[in-house]
């Protein structure tokens, strides 16, 4: 049956009569000193190992921070590209809107021109009727002139005047008729020319508008393609940004884990320092006892200490067993959880010595107790308050503190652990077999 150093810590420190050192022989005391020194060397090795782990962790944290900075710069660059892309898309959308307005304006113009064409067609139709009637009238007049010898008819009208006044009147009438004939001819020719010009103009405008409309449609199609390309680019950049953000989140998670690990190492180191201090105190007491025993020529048998067994610990608190020991989806649970209202009393599961009473980032208010008679350590975590201090001897059932919700805890409860020998991280064993 293994006897570790903490058996002798309690033997030398606890004044509650667990072991009577007056009965320990000089030979036994010398052996215990050797064991204490061996345990102290083991603790020194553990502290050195923790220091090495801490330095390695700090290097990892520094490397992680450098990676985060690099990724952050990449994300900034991508965000800048995203901003530029969005501005380009906005500009293209404005161009598309302007083009659509152009198309609408051109379609309006085409509609107006078509209406104008319809109007011109009606005018042309009317002009053709007038031209046709005028041509008929002119042909009749030409035939009449030709049948009467050209201008002789006009001469007969003039020469048939009865007097001078009648002569003047007839001459004026003939001139008026001749002027009208001339005006009719000029108007006829001008109207025919105007009609042809308008027909040509309308056709030209129709061709011009159709050409412009085709150009605008082509431009619109081009802009739509550009917008599609920009949207695709934006989607790609968004995916890249999401990937970078994911990477950043992973790096931050790793950083948080490393920081937590670093804190845990620091806490472990403090626990080991506390235990080492208790061992050093025990060793000094053992040396003093050995010197005292050397002055005597008597001997006595060494104390026999139990290494533990079934039902050696009392339940540390009233409440409901909310979580048992074992594997969980988010990790391993190294103890029991007893849920109860804040302020419920927590007692020590057995007599022992307090090897740590402090606030932990993970355990919150926590007390560690070593039980030399069983070579076991118990842990009481997440307390709202602590009632005992480091190095204090405690009896079975003595109040250690009250249930709370401190540290990394979700709801008021007591987290209770049992360890073989001294406490070590992830060294907790199932408490159930040891509870009464």
UniProtKB/TrEMBL annotation:
<feature type="coiled-coil region">
    <location>
        <begin position="178"/>
        <end position="268"/>
    </location>
</feature>
<dbReference type="InterPro" id="IPR016047">
    <property type="entry name" value="M23ase_b-sheet_dom"/>
</dbReference>
<dbReference type="InterPro" id="IPR050570">
    <property type="entry name" value="Cell_wall_metabolism_enzyme"/>
</dbReference>
<keyword id="KW-0175">Coiled coil</keyword>
<dbReference type="Pfam" id="PF24568">
    <property type="entry name" value="CC_PcsB"/>
</dbReference>
<dbReference type="InterPro" id="IPR011055">
    <property type="entry name" value="Dup_hybrid_motif"/>
</dbReference>
<feature type="region of interest" description="Disordered">
    <location>
        <begin position="37"/>
        <end position="58"/>
    </location>
</feature>
<dbReference type="InterPro" id="IPR057309">
    <property type="entry name" value="PcsB_CC"/>
</dbReference>
<keyword id="KW-0732">Signal</keyword>
<protein>
    <submittedName>
        <fullName>N-terminal domain of peptidoglycan hydrolase CwlO-containing protein</fullName>
    </submittedName>
</protein>
<feature type="domain" description="Peptidoglycan hydrolase PcsB coiled-coil">
    <location>
        <begin position="124"/>
        <end position="198"/>
    </location>
</feature>
<keyword id="KW-0378">Hydrolase</keyword>
<feature type="domain" description="M23ase beta-sheet core">
    <location>
        <begin position="332"/>
        <end position="422"/>
    </location>
</feature>
<dbReference type="Pfam" id="PF01551">
    <property type="entry name" value="Peptidase_M23"/>
</dbReference>
<dbReference type="GO" id="GO:0004222">
    <property type="term" value="F:metalloendopeptidase activity"/>
</dbReference>
<feature type="compositionally biased region" description="Basic and acidic residues">
    <location>
        <begin position="37"/>
        <end position="48"/>
    </location>
</feature>
């Amino acid at each position: 049956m293994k006897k570790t150093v903490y058996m002798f810590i309690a033997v030398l420190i606890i004044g509650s009569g667990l072991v009577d050192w007056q009965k320990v022989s000089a030979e036994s005391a010398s052996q215990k000193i050797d064991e204490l020194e061996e345990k102290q060397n083991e603790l020194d090795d553990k502290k050195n190992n923790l220091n090495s782990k801490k330095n390695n962790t700090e290097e990892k944290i520094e490397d992680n921070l450098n990676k985060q900075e690099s990724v952050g710069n990449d994300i900034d660059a991508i965000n800048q590209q995203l901003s530029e892309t969005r501005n380009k898309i906005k500009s293209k959308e404005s161009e598309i809107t302007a083009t659509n307005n152009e198309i609408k304006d051109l379609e309006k113009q085409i509609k107006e021109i078509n209406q104008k064409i319809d109007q011109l067609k009606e005018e042309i139709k009317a002009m053709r009727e007038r031209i046709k009637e005028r041509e008929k009238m002119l042909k009749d007049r030409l035939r009449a002139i030709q049948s009467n010898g050209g201008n002789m008819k006009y001469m007969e009208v003039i020469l048939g005047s009865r007097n001078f006044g009648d002569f003047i009147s007839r001459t004026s009438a003939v001139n008026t008729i001749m002027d009208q004939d001339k005006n009719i001819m000029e108007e006829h020719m001008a109207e025919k020319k105007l009609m042809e010009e308008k027909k040509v103009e309308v056709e030209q405008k129709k061709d011009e508008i159709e050409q412009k409309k085709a150009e605008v449609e082509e431009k619109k199609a081009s802009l739509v393609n550009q917008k599609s390309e920009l949207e695709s680019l934006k989607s790609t950049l968004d995916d890249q940004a999401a990937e970078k953000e994911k990477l950043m989140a992973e790096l931050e998670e790793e950083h948080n884990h490393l920081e937590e690990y670093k804190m845990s190492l620091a806490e472990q180191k403090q626990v080991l320092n506390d235990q080492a201090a208790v061992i050093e105190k025990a060793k000094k007491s053992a040396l003093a006892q050995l010197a005292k025993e050397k002055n005597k020529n008597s001997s006595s048998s060494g104390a026999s200490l139990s290494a533990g067994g079934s039902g050696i610990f009392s339940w540390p608190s009233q409440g409901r067993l909310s979580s048992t020991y074992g594997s969980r989806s988010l990790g391993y649970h190294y103890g029991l959880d007893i849920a109860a209202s804040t302020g419920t009393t927590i007692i020590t599961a057995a007599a022992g010595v307090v090897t740590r009473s402090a606030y932990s980032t993970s355990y919150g208010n926590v007390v560690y107790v070593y039980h030399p008679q069983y070579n076991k350590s118990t842990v009481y975590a997440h307390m709202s308050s602590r009632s005992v201090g480091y190095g204090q001897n405690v009896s079975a059932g003595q109040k250690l503190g009250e249930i709370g919700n401190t540290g990394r805890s979700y709801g008021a409860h007591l987290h209770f652990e049992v360890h073989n020998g001294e406490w070590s991280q992830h060294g907790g064993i199932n408490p159930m077999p040891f509870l009464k």
